[in-house]
Write a structure and sequence with these properties.
Largest sheet: none
Order of helices and strands: H
Number of helices: 1
Distance between the termini: 73 Å
Strand content: under 5%
């Protein structure tokens, strides 16, 4: 916004970066590995018809 007193800008600055916490990535990785292991375990233990 330009005001009548010159080329000055007065206002908030909302520039920021969102950085996920490392625990979020660790939980997603652990959950994915657990689901993968469960699927593999169920495939191997299923009877072959």
């Amino acid at each position: 916004m330009l005001n009548r007193y010159g080329n000055s800008y007065f206002g908030p600055n909302f520039t920021f970066a969102v950085v996920p916490e490392p625990t979020t990535n660790a939980l997603l990785l652990a959950g994915g590995a657990a689901i993968f292991a469960l699927v593999q375990w169920r495939r191997r233990s299923a009877p072959n018809h």
